Amino acid sequence: MLKAMRKLKITELNRISTEEFKTVEKLPLIVVLDHVRSLYNVGSVFRSSDAFRVASVYLCGITATPPQVEIHKTALGAEDSVNWVYYERTQDAVEHLKAEGYEVWAVEQVEGSIMLQDFQPDKAKKYAIILGNEVKGVQQEVVDQCDGCIEIPQFGTKHSLNVSVTAGILVWEFARKMKL
Fold first, then answer.
1. So where are the chain's domains?
2. Mind telling me which Gene3D superfamilies this protein's record contains (predicted)?
3. What is the CATH number of domain 23-178?
4. Which of 55, 57, 113, 121 is deepest in the core (most CB within 10 A)?
5. Are 121 and 171 in contact (CB under 8 A)?
6. Spatial strand order in the sheet of 102-107
């Protein structure tokens, strides 16, 4: 027999405030968006980044920045809690991250990529993951700058996932493997 389950009320979830979020320990991970077109995807990435306390989101190239109604619609305020930075060129963001001691990984299908389930982050290191444009993916020039590429295995007829879905999967995997 199934046990009765009652949905929890928002007040029972014990979530931290936006102000508290700014001060708590973060996952040593930065999500970089390389020319992501959809403002809804950007908002969704903010929301997933908030859920797992990502350190920051870097918005590059044509990727829109807050405040934007479309970003807020999917971020639901996470664009206010998660730190973000804008770079005109993704290559400059990668150079900055490397200078700050981050390992930088593109999420892309390339020769020699590491499948996500085989990627084991070192808990002592800081990471950045780069997610690409909805059509073109991560720019080859950016891939060339990276320490490596992570690939999500797929078994259907399509060869890609939505960028916000990809972000959710990757951020969860980093949180699971590094903190939980």
1. 23-178
2. 3.40.1280.10
3. 3.40.1280.10
4. 57
5. no
6. 84-87, 54-60, 27-34, 126-132, 102-107, 148-151, 114-115
